[in-house]
Specification:
alpha+beta, 9 strands
């Protein structure tokens, strides 16, 4: 965990997000009606140019709770691979139903003494998902490196809507080579042959890649 943190790989604990969905958040008016939501909120969005992908998941507030909340899962497969979770607090269509404006609060993770706790950030962020055609959408990303996230300002990217989870393909193409280089550099100081260093870097990069995929494929 410490090594990954030094290398900029945000490792999120699985199975903890539902714990932050308190009744006040879970009962927020996040339901959206209409064709746009029925079809599109069940899809994945990917952008090779941005090395970014996101999707939505509906989570229960607790194991036996009937209350639910929607989370936007943001996967950044760029120079600092990471996954961010945002609990939606509102969602609203434009009059022509071509633009879906959503607000979310980031889910924060804190690990101490081997125990991971979660909390919701106080600040709410806004982003717009604009429909250009059946499978073509646009959204904006703001921030740099580990701080990139969906926003209502920043760089506009074209996203393709797909039923297939893009995480494995993007992680293999972008995350694994990035993490391999970073691990190999980190292992330069250890007493080992170059072949051994490469083997270790490959093992750690594979593990980081698998973690990225699991964190993106969030399930309650």
């Amino acid at each position: 965990m410490r090594l990954w943190a030094k290398l900029g790989m945000t490792v999120l604990a699985l199975g903890t997000v539902s714990g932050v969905l308190t009744p006040s958040v879970a009962s927020a008016k996040t339901k959206v009606t209409g064709t746009f939501a029925n079809r599109d909120l069940q899809s994945y969005y990917k952008s090779a140019k941005a090395k970014s992908a996101f999707h939505f998941e509906t989570l229960k507030a607790g194991k036996n709770s009937k209350k639910t909340a929607t989370v936007v899962v943001m996967g950044d497969f760029g120079s600092v691979p990471n996954v961010k979770y945002g609990a939606l607090t509102s969602a609203k269509y434009s009059k022509n139903k071509k633009v879906l404006t959503m607000k979310y609060k980031l889910v924060n993770f804190k690990t101490k003494n081997g125990k991971t706790t979660t909390s919701l950030a106080k600040k709410a962020y806004t982003f717009k998902l604009t429909k250009k055609s059946t499978n073509k959408f646009t959204a904006k990303l703001t921030g740099k490196k580990a701080n990139r996230r969906l926003a209502n300002s920043g760089t506009t990217y074209k996203y393709t809507r797909t039923k297939t989870n893009p995480a494995k393909a993007y992680a293999k193409k972008y995350v694994k080579p990035t993490m391999y280089k970073q691990y190999l550099k980190a292992f330069n100081s250890i007493n080992a042959t170059q072949a051994q260093k490469k083997k270790l870097a490959t093992q750690y990069a594979t593990q980081a890649t698998n973690t990225m995929v699991k964190n993106f494929d969030l399930k309650n």
